[in-house]
Amino acid sequence: MMNNQGRPTNNNAASDAQITGYKSYTGSRGLEQEELLIYEIGDTQRTGVDLPEVEDFKSCLGDVERDQEIGLAGLSEPEAMRHYTRLSRKNYAIDMGLYPLGSCTMKHNPRLNEKMARLPGLGDIHPMQPLSTVQGALDLIDTLAHWLKTLTGMPAVAMSPKAGAHGELCGLMAIRTALEAKGDGRSIVLAPESAHGTNPATAALCGYKVVSIPATSEGRVDLAAMKDAMGPEIAAIMVTNPNTCGLFEREIVEMADAIHAVGGYFYCDGANFNAIVGKVRPGDLGVDAMHINLHKTFSTPHGGGGPGAGPVVLSEALAPYAPIPYVVAGEEEFNMVEHDVEGGESFGRMTAFHGQMGMFVRALSYMMSHGADGLARVAEDSVLNANYVLASLKDVMSASYEGPCMHEALFDDHFLKDTGVSTLDFAKAMIDEGYHPMTMYFPLVVHGAMLVEPTESESKQSVDQFIEMMRHLVKAAKGGEVERFSGAPYNAPLKRLDETGAARNPKLRWED
Ligand SMILES: *Cc1c(COP(=O)(O)O)cnc(C)c1O
């Protein structure tokens, strides 16, 4: 059905996998090779490099010097190449297909960004080089900072945090320092029920007690409950907008006013900025601090693909407490402020250097190649694609909330009731169909959540194929094909894994 060029297309992959059920001698499937662990194929004597003997040297390690072999398995260069290439083919990637993980914005990373990041003047520099030799790189950081401030309508930005969660930590540390500067030792941070786990974790790490605010039946923060919780002990509220149900928090200005009225700060989790970039400026909504996941909205690689970057925009009130180091544009040249100025109030340093340079280059490249109109289109198209998914599936799956969504469509598992197919089974069957599952069981406010974020970089054809596949699976589940789901994935290199066991009881050391 998906192929109308005369090549046979298999619409029944699960049963087909059962029919061909004989195993190959090698464990490989077609030309996808089975691969053992590096400890099984390598040994401590093998290496891909031939280094000269170390000359006499004096160790500075004293009695902490290792006296045994480190015991890491080595491979020759071609063996190492094959090992990792084979493993990579068992992995999924945005370059292979739609990656519908909600709240993750798994969009295409334009190759232009990669080309820019590899320019020798940007890719081959070192953070300890003299500033006079990296003026262009500092200019780039300053320019990116300018556009982040412009897009968010905020006066300041801390560039150094290295992920969204790290940005949250930065924002809350600035808030805590600002309060302490006034001698105000507040103890509570509010977070809505639908919050990403990093929000309460960050607040707890900063020593705050986390109080949860319930959601309304519409999937938004219950403003009345939030106002009831207000008081002199509230240091901040952390709200995601659009929220993790894929809905815009329409009462966000009222929330900001309520928290400001009791002397607290408004932290906005900006991970979902993709839905509103170029359309809404969080600074206009009363936000005091917000992290921006460059690896989501601005297309820098993430997941297994690369480090993140989580710059934090700050309001006038919080700007003095921003972390060091930061770049300042002087009359003649750019400078890096490494130590707090005399009488300064910076809360300190979060990272050794200035942040994730490679991600800065990619994000700026993405912004400049899109332009202001292109960035607004990003928001429009991401919202359009998500609504197309929602509208095309809500007759067979259960949409959690009425009405249109923002950049992601939230379903729950009511449609699977009495089918004998669990939410997890359904996700695993998607793998057999060549799709990475969407975000499962998050947000926690609905039963068996399935959060689909197609992003704007998917074509209509690609989204249509996804919808067609999902409708097919729903029909199979409702039609009693339980086995197809309960043992899924049948076609993956490894079958159903005990993911909880692996997380609770990780084996971190190879033992013969
Ligand atoms: C992704 C995400 C985060 C955390 O960002 P990381 O870069 O993964 O640390 C926080 N909040 C929300 C809503 C997110 O989607």
**Overall structural domain count:** 2
Q: Mind telling me the CATH class of the largest domain? A: Alpha Beta
User: Please, what is the average pLDDT?
Assistant: 93
Cα end-to-end separation: 49 Å
Largest sheet: 7 strands, mixed
- Strand order in the sheet with the most strands: 1-7-6-5-4-2-3
CATH second-level architecture of the largest domain: 3-Layer(aba) Sandwich
Looking at CATH, the homologous superfamily of the largest domain is Type I PLP-dependent aspartate aminotransferase-like (Major domain)
Helix and strand content put the structural class at: alpha/beta
Helix proportion: 25-40%
- Residue share in β-strands: 5-15%
**Which regions have little confidence, pLDDT < 50, spanning 5+ residues?**
13-19
List the helices and strands and how they pair.
Elements: H1 13-19, H2 38-41, H3 77-89, H4 111-117, H5 120-123, H6 135-152, E1 156-158, H7 164-181, E2 188-192, H8 198-205, E3 209-213, H9 223-229, E4 234-240, H10 252-261, E5 265-269, E6 289-291, H11 294-297, E7 312-314, E8 326-329, E9 334-337, H12 357-393, E10 398-399, E11 409-412, H13 423-432, E12 439-440, E13 450-452, H14 460-478, H15 482-486, H16 499-504
Parallel strand pairs: 2-3, 2-4, 4-5, 5-6
Antiparallel strand pairs: 1-7, 6-7, 8-9, 10-11, 11-13, 12-13
Helix pairs in contact: 4-12, 6-12, 7-8, 12-14
